[in-house]
Amino acid sequence: MQTSRWLGKPLKRKEDLRFLTGRGNFITDLSLPDMLYVALLRSPYPHALIKSIDTKKAERLEGVVKVLTGQELKDYVKPFRHVIRVPDYYPMALDKVRYVGEPIAAVAAVNPYTARDAVDLIEVEYEPLEPVVDSEKAMQQGAPLIHEGFENNVAWHRQFHYGDVEEAFGKADEIVNERFSFHRYSSTPIEPYGCAAIYDPASGNITLWDQNQQVGLYRARMAEALKMPEHKLRHITLDIGGGFGNKIGIYPYSAIVSVLSILTGRPVKWIADRREDLMSVQAADRKAIVEAAVRRDGRILGIRVKIIENIGAYLRHPEPQTVTRGFFTFLGCYDIQDVFIDAYCIFTNKAPTVPNRGYGCHPAYFHLERMMDIVAGRLGLDKAEIRFRNFIKPEQMP
Fold first, then answer.
1. Looking at residues 126-146, what average pLDDT do you find?
2. In the chain, where does the domain assigned CATH 3.30.365.10 lie?
């Protein structure tokens, strides 16, 4: 039998030296001649109509080169495409804001401080609308619609069946049910999101730098959004100062800096501050109702779950995988043969969600493991003992 040279062996890390000696190449290190720096004006409201935007004072500030609004940006981009039918998702708000922090305008200036000063000079008239931030309230008849033209706020609904759940519940000695909530959070890598772009008018090519963790797919989606052939977009991922899944999503910022480079003829860079990053990289909050069909000896025969996932104002790639990943991990290490999951993703006036560490798995494990504790308490069993009785046995493994 041939033994592996790799499995079970320690591997020498080869990338550490340049990071430890300060020779990493991050987006903040990128500097190009005549580079402009971007600051974004973001919505202070979770739900409001944009009645007017006055950028004249910002445009007159010394050092400001370009002020871009969503209406002007719309002429240069298409909505980001998704594989399922969802409302249009543009890089900046057009006539309505749907969450606190949604970009409304962008300023490109000779330095980041001037850009931020100019943002403060942009005057926006809003008409506040009733917000809805609770996913269950957003599902109710008559709830404020996040997206006009859609019948309700259900972004996505699927059911997952495995085995015969009705039979399992019919054989149960007891049915134990509980309701769970899982909060929003952010993995907060040490380096916030950032990107830079330069447009070459001679060739029509754009070179785009960022820290996206899904390079090939991101390039294809971004080229499509920029209305250009994929071969004309050169996408370079620099060193990433932490990702944890946060930098997999399709963010609007690369499209904004690319269009600003087209309009100004200069390289353009944007770096999020920590507050902006926290607005942009949230994991979904979830409510779940779990029912377990239980025998008196502690064996769990089947599980029924209703998941209500709050995905915020837009469903952006790669969502709804935060839910579908849980379909395949929900039973964890337990020998439970019958399961039914009824899953909803709901639009609300919270920020759109993105992958975060553990993506989709830990809410499922939280529901499952808390349920094991509750069942143990109901049956008067030790919490460890009920787990031993339900573990997958070694002989059941392939």
1. 98
2. 135-183+282-389
- DSSP assignment of 216-262, as one string? HHHHHHHHHHTTS-GGGEEEEE---S--TTGGGS--SHHHHHHHHHH
In percent, the amount of the chain with pLDDT more than 70 equals 99
Strand partners, 37: 109, 269
Distance (Å, whole) CA 342 – CA 291: 12
Q: Which amino acid is at 341?
A: I
**What does the alpha-carbon distance between residue 81 and residue 48 come to, in Å, rounded to a whole number?**
24
- 135-183+282-389: CATH architecture: 2-Layer Sandwich (3.30)
Quick one: tokens of 151? 């019948």
Degrees to nearest 5, angle at CA 70 with 259 and 114? 70
CA neighbor of 154 nearest in space, from 340, 26, 357, 323: 323
Query: How far is residue 153's CA from residue 33's CA, in Å, rounded to a whole number?
Result: 47
Residue 1 pLDDT class (50, 70, 90 cuts)? low
| Dihedral (Cα; 217, 222, 228, 231), 10-degree rounding | -40
Question: Do residues 32 and 267 lie in contact, with contact meaning Cβ atoms separated by under 8 Å?
Answer: yes
Q: What is the pTM of this model?
A: 0.93
The correct answer on CATH 3.90.1170.50 for the domain covering 24-129+192-280 is yes
Residue range(s) of every CATH 3.90.1170.50 domain in the chain = 24-129+192-280
* C-alpha torsion sign, points 267, 250, 187, 19: negative
Q: In degrees to the nearest 10, what's the CA dihedral of 168, 169, 173, 178?
A: 120
Q: Is the model's pLDDT at 164 over the cut of 90?
A: yes
Question: For residue 136, what are the CA distances in angstroms to 36, 145, 156, 171, 181?
Answer: 44, 13, 14, 32, 12
- Closest to 93 in 3D by CA, of 130, 59, 142, 44: 44
Q: Judge contact between 365 and 288, C-beta under 8 A.
A: no
What lies within 8 Å, CB to CB, of 367 at 6+ separation is: 180, 182, 288, 290, 305, 330
Across 147-165, average pLDDT:
95
| Predicted confidence (pLDDT) per residue in 180-212, tens digit | 999 999 988 999 999 999 999 999 999 999 999
- For residue 124, give Cα distances in angstroms to 45, 119, 131: 12, 11, 19
